[in-house]
Design brief:
By secondary structure, this protein is an alpha+beta fold. The protein has 24 helices and 23 strands. Among the domains are: 185 residues, Serine Threonine Protein Phosphatase 5, Tetratricopeptide repeat (Alpha Horseshoe), CATH 1.25.40; 100 residues, no CATH class. The strands form six sheets. Strands 3, 4, 5, 6, 8, 11, 12, 16, 17, 18, 21, 22 and 23 form a 13-stranded mixed sheet that branches. Strands 1-2 form a two-stranded parallel sheet. A two-stranded parallel ribbon has the order 7-15. One of its GO terms (biological process) is protein deubiquitination.
Length: 758
């Protein structure tokens, strides 16, 4: 009678089928063309129901054999359907001692083989804690043994799907006194159990369709190890001023990368889908040396992306300005003009604010490097643009003896990335080829003295006490808060800007002495960016093992960061003895022509502490740059308003005093008071397709709870700068403060939403 489900008592018959028939039977079942997928799914579901029959024997053996048989013939759709339909029922059976062994065997196989998405595991996560407590109360030896097996299984799954701190914290708390398997063992278990040797080959479209998450934000589908891109895109999308500029650009009829980014941002803002698949953007923005489907360094990707967008805009500007003169000139002189324009762009850093590219306006800052010969005391200086600062970890000694950094060892050069990402606006008169033209953007050019070494003992002579005290004070603050030896971002920034001694293999060639000399190198930020991007240099090359190892140190992240900016007050345009530098009109409102002083002259600087607030954090989970997973935390921060925070709700929750202290001394009390009241739903966690609400506490505690999950790339937004964006734009209504979209974009989104909803 098809209207009735057959009784689970049928399970009693299974023990009478000889086990040696399994291989033959399963092979004929899975390869029989007459057995339709639907009836196979139904049969498998019924067999799983039989696990509930206490008198049954061998049911789990048959179920696991059938699951393996279906995987062998790649019937993944059946496996996914059955796993998602039945995994909660199987987990439920663990409550009953008689059927527990069989249920645990099937549950382990289901979870460990379902490696393409956390969906199955996350169905049972909410029920784990109560079961663990029940096993503990039970006190029976059998319960304890099962608890150890279950704990090992759960650890494997949490390792495989890292990046869900909110979900896993209660479980970690519940099993903290149970033995934890080693990383090697976890990797072994996972590698032996996947349906396919490469689980990422399963199409991502197999995950279930569901509507947008309660956050109202859209996730990004992982296209096969593309979390390095997804986490960076979400951080850029949440950089509110940057997103609004991108969305407001008029790029009709243009097939540029910026147009593709605009398309992606528009979909993230307005789609009805829970997650969007950024295929077109991925193909257009993937660096050519990145192997598809393999894990990559998100900081390298971000640098490449910003560089491409910057280059593209400059080229388009040069072309369009060449076109305007078309009517006046004949063809020959016109091409010369275009070439000339392009050269002007490549050589001249002296662009007014309207001539700067969007990337320069949003992420561009300026660093001044001064090298002072310790023999003749002559100085040479150089200014260069940056879009991000790479912060090296200070050797522990440098904080105690805190002398200037000493740079003797030349082999370290290659181990650490170049300290600054140089934008292609080099000083006129010394036309440096920009990194993109030289080698396809593969790495930034190694300019003199842009690499910091932190492997050697610092030299304690020539100590600059003020720097030292600053480092020491910050360290004391962060230590007293976070426990022993926790560095803060401020410590790393101070270390980056601390004077550095060039000696040994790294001596400086002084033109005045006409020989190699010991020298002191200092770096100063002379123009601050709207968005400050900081990369913590966590990956160092291990020459013995030929791999890039990861520094897992916890670094405390201040909510408010103060950037010391030394703007030159003298508007006199003088050409320096060492390097010649053009005039740069800053768009920060100073409108001072910044010029470098002649060698040896005294410079009047007003070091100013510019406040920044934390906007987003990209986290790397794993132990090397070639593996692991990326996800990001971000919140709504805008430049306008006294606090720069875009409050979404009116409810207030006080930040704990510890968090307040971590912000370190703030230059203006207004900022600190505003930041005391953190919005409860202001932070978001973006983990590929999944977006959830989170809190700043969760961001701060991440490494202490999950030792291999560490902050890697940080975005800070400059406080109280409206950043020249006219919100009362003439072109219509703004949605959530975002500009209205171009018509063709809006049409594409509306069409896709209709399709999706159907």
């Amino acid at each position: 009678d098809t209207s009735f489900e057959p009784s689970v008592a049928l399970a009693s018959l299974v023990q009478h089928i000889p086990l040696q028939m399994i291989t033959v039977l399963i092979r004929s079942l899975t390869t029989d063309p007459n057995v339709k997928d639907a009836s196979m799914t139904q049969a498998l579901c019924r067999m799983i129901d039989w696990l509930s029959w206490p008198l049954a024997q061998h049911v789990e053996t048959w179920v696991i054999a059938l699951l393996k048989g279906l995987a062998a013939v790649q019937k993944f759709t059946i496996l996914i359907d059955v796993t998602l339909l039945k995994i909660e029922l199987v987990f439920n059976r663990l409550w009953f001692p008689l059927v527990r062994p069989g249920a645990l065997a099937v549950l382990s196989h289901m979870l460990l083989s379902f490696q393409h998405s956390p969906e199955a595991f996350h169905l049972i996560v909410p029920h784990v804690v109560s079961l663990v407590h029940s096993f503990k109360r039970d006190g029976l030896p059998s319960s304890t043994a099962f608890l150890m097996q279950l704990t090992e299984l759960i650890h494997c799954m949490m390792y495989h799907y890292s990046g869900f701190p909110e979900l896993y914290e209660p479980i970690l708390e519940a099993v903290k006194d149970m033995p934890k398997p080693t990383e090697e063992k976890i990797k072994l278990i996972l590698s032996q159990s996947a349906w396919t040797s490469q689980s990422s080959s399963l199409p991502s479209c197999l995950s279930r369709l569901s509507g947008k998450s309660e956050t109202g934000k859209t996730g990004l589908i992982n296209l096969g190890n593309t979390c390095y891109m997804n986490s960076v895109i979400q951080a850029l999308f949440m950089a509110t001023d940057f997103r609004r500029h991108v969305l407001s650009l008029n790029l009709n009829g243009c097939n540029s990368l910026m147009r593709k980014l605009q398309h992606l941002f528009a979909f993230l803002a307005h789609t009805q889908r829970e997650a969007y698949a950024p295929r077109i953007f991925f193909e257009a923005s993937r660096p050519p040396w990145f192997t598809p489907r393999s894990q990559q360094d998100c900081s390298e990707y971000l640098r490449f992306l910003l560089d491409r967008l910057h280059e593209e805009e400059r080229t388009l500007k040069a072309l369009s300005s060449a076109k305007t003169s078309e009517s006046i000139m004949n063809e020959e002189s016109q091409t010369q003009e275009a070439v000339h324009k392009a050269q002007v762009f490549a050589e001249a850093p002296c662009m007014g604010s309207e001539e700067r590219t969007l990337i320069e306006k949003m992420f561009g800052g300026k660093l001044k490097t001064t090298i002072c010969c310790l023999n003749c005391k002559s100085m040479s200086q150089k200014e260069e643009a940056f879009t991000d600062l790479s912060l090296a970890f200070c050797p522990p000694t440098s904080l105690e003896n805190a002398g200037p950094k000493c740079m003797e060892c030349s082999e370290v050069k290659d181990d650490y990335m170049v300290q600054t990402n140089t934008l292609a606006t080099s000083p006129a008169g010394e036309t440096l080829l920009n990194n993109f033209e030289v080698n396809g953007g593969c790495d930034t050019i190694m300019n003199e003295g842009t690499i910091k070494d932190f492997s050697t003992e610092p030299n304690s002579e020539n100590t600059t006490n003020s720097e030292l005290n600053k480092v020491q004070d910050n360290r004391d603050v962060s230590q007293s808060l976070v426990g022993k030896n926790t560095l803060s971002v401020t410590d790393l920034l101070n270390y980056f800007l601390a004077p550095e001694i060039l000696s040994g293999d790294n001596k400086y060639y002084c033109e005045k002495c006409a020989s190699l000399q010991n020298a002191e190198k200092t770096m100063q930020i002379v123009e601050e960016p709207e968005y400050l991007i900081l990369t913590l240099l966590r990956f160092s090359y291990d020459p013995k093992c030929h791999i890039r190892r990861k520094i897992l140190d916890n670094v405390s992240l201040p909510l408010v960061l103060e950037l010391p900016v030394k703007r030159a007050t003298s508007p006199l345009a003088v050409v320096s003895g060492g390097w010649s530098v053009g005039v740069e009109i800053s768009d920060i409102g100073e409108n001072l022509a910044k010029k470098l002083k002649p060698s040896g002259a005294d410079e009047v600087t007003c070091p100013q502490l510019v406040p920044y607030v934390l906007s987003s954090v990209v986290v790397h989970s794993g132990v090397s740059s070639e593996s692991g997973h990326y996800y990001s935390y971000a919140r709504n921060v805008t430049g306008s308003g006294p606090s720069g925070l875009c409050h979404q709700s009116t409810a207030l929750s006080l930040v704990s005093p510890q968090d307040k202290l971590l912000t370190e001394e703030s230059p203006c009390t207004v900022v600190e008071n505003e930041l005391d009241t953190e919005m409860p739903r202001e932070w978001f966690l973006f983990n590929d397709s999944r977006v959830t609400f989170t809190s700043f506490q969760s961001v701060q505690k991440i490494t202490s709870r999950f030792p291999k999950d560490t902050a890697y790339v940080l975005f800070y937004k400059k406080q109280n700068s409206a950043c020249g964006f006219n919100t009362n734009s003439a072109n219509g209504l703004w949605v959530n403060g975002d500009p209205p979209l171009q018509k063709d974009l809006m049409d594409a989104i509306t069409k896709d939403n209709k399709l999706y909803l159907q």
